[in-house]
């Protein structure tokens, strides 16, 4: 009877597990997505720097927009870095 209850308890709350083929493909997709996101972050930082340098003379609003963009890009990159560890905490 105790064995039956332990089996039923395991059925009620199974741990997540993907088949090996799916896990391999998912890893490739997530790696590509992370690479694209980091590339976009690098481009965003370069664009913000260009805006600040171009807006230095007679276009102060452009320079201010570039300066305001830097923390947002860093926040986005931080979110990307922390996404997988945060999901793993809850799984």
Looking at this protein, list some descriptive labels.
91 residues, mainly alpha, 3 helices, 85% helix, elongated
Would you kindly provide a written description of the structure presented here, covering whatever features stand out?
This protein has helices at residues 2-12, 20-54, 60-90. With 91 residues, it is mainly α. The chain has a domain at 31-91. It is built from 3 helices and no strands. The longest helix has 35 residues, at 20-54. The relative contact order is 0.09. Helix 2 (20-54) packs antiparallel against helix 3. Helix content is 85%, strand content 0%.
Ends: how far apart?
Answer: 30 Å
What is the SS-derived class? mainly alpha
- Counting DSSP H or I runs of 4 or more residues, the number of helices is 3
- Choose one word for the global shape: elongated
CA gyration radius, whole angstroms: 23 Å
Q: Give the SSE order as H and E letters.
A: HHH
Helix content: over 70%
Major sheet: size, sense and barrel closure? none
Overall strand count: 0
Mean pLDDT: 84
Q: What percentage of the residues does DSSP assign to strands (E)?
A: under 5%
Low-confidence stretches: none
């Amino acid at each position: 009877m105790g064995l039956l209850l332990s089996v039923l308890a395991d059925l009620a709350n199974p741990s997540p597990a993907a088949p090996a083929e799916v896990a391999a493909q998912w890893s490739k997709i997530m790696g590509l997505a992370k690479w694209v996101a980091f590339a976009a972050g690098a481009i965003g930082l370069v664009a913000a720097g260009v805006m600040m340098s171009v807006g230095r003379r007679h276009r102060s609003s452009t320079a201010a927009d570039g300066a305001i963009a830097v923390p947002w890009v860093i926040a986005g990159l931080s979110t990307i870095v922390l996404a997988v560890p945060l999901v793993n905490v809850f799984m």
